[in-house]
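Long-time lurker, finally posting.

We've been working with Protocatechuate 3,4-dioxygenase (Ideonella livida) and I want a structural starting point before designing mutants. I don't trust myself to interpret raw outputs, so I'm hoping someone here can both generate the structure tokens and explain anything notable. Sequence follows.
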Amino acid sequence: MARITASVFTSHVPAIGAAMDLGKTHEPYWQPLFAGYEPSKQWLKDNKPDVVFLVYNDHATAFSLELIPTFAIGCAAEFNPADEGWGPRPVPKVIGHPELAAHITQSVIQDDFDLTIVNKMDVDHGLTVPLSLMCGQPQEWPFKVIPFAVNVVQYPVPSGRRCFQIGQAIRKAVESFDEDLNVQIWGTGGMSHQLQGARAGLINREWDNAWLDKMIADPKACADTPHIDYVREAGSEGIELVMWLIARGAMADVNGGPAPTVKHRFYHVPASNTAVGHLILENNA
Ligand code: DHB
Ligand code: FE
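Top reply, 14 upvotes:
Generated this for you. Predicted structure of Protocatechuate 3,4-dioxygenase:
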């Protein structure tokens, strides 16, 4: 049986990828940020998954305004890093797991969540920056990845509650896959940031840290947060945090099991225009 062993939560700022690709990680601006991910890289080496179910958002890269799926699952055998205007990032291509992706698609759609099936898709910084932060700069990514793209770019976006419920359905789907696989689920994006308009540059440390507390101990309170609260408190792009709720909904404690163990917690401002938040939760069932 496949099992979800842990969840990882992290921001995905494109400038973080550029800092790595251009060899700037030791510069004073970046050093404290990357130091916060050193324990995570070691943890991932010690807890190497077979597959990561990676919840992220596409930033009008693979999907333009012509076609906007709310929840899209990557079922392809591989996914190339996208060209976001400066050429593709010099990172390995992403190897998928079509069999597990197809199984999850079947199970989750039969559980009444209408996913869009994607058989060809390039993946942008939303997916590759979390991989870089957690894995460094390997020749090949050390596990397979199922990309799961959520629309948080064009309104209307899905509610946090819906995201949480879909996470619960994903857990059920993974646990009904016959092969013994160690699966992690990653929720990415956030924390507070606003990239445009009168409040551009908004950061809300207090709200972000209260959110991290609740993500650990009271995730249902996060799931019940209305979307307007994210926009008001965490800025227009703070809405990316609903994606964390998919990963949190797939953890044992919110599906009748024991509480997770917090393996790492980190918060850092600034990284470009964004507050970087990061959690690793390990399942105890
Ligand atoms: C930034 C953050 C994002 O989440 C994003 O998608 C693009 C840019 C930033 O802080 O620069
Ligand atoms: Fe983003």
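Before you design anything, note these points.
The chain has ten helices and ten strands.
Residues 160-175 form the longest helix (16 residues).
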